[in-house]
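Sequence only, no structure available. Ideas?
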Amino acid sequence: MTVSKIRVLFLCVHNTARSQMAEAFLRAFTGDEFEVYSAGLEPREIDPLTVAVMRERGFDLQGHYAKPLSEFLGKVHFGYLITVCDRAERECPTFPGMGTRLNWSFEDPAAFQGTEEQRLAKFREVRDGLELSIREWLVFRGSW
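Reply:
I predicted one. Tokens follow.
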């Protein structure tokens, strides 16, 4: 008997930082328990600082790319839709095949203005917050 994996979609505006980080963390922490995806309302290229701060933690984002939400709308059933910013939470439509919807509000590190070192610090702050949120969610769900 084959048990289907729970599908999780992380959604943010551009799919360039927060949702990419969350996807990588959940996939790494749970192995085969979940099918993990990320998407954006207005996808753009992954921010190089996202790649850099994830590499610091041993994650290689090679092969990751920004995907539009439309790639999944009405085509894939998700057990969880987790928005990682308030704008995505406000603008994401309810669609068929969506299970539990959660919102984790994280600042967009790509929008942060400052020196290169200050920007890196903001990306690290968001990365670490997402990792903590995922670990806590897994404990709450009883999956950790």
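Residues 38 and 95 are 16 Å apart (CA to CA).
Hope that gets you unstuck.
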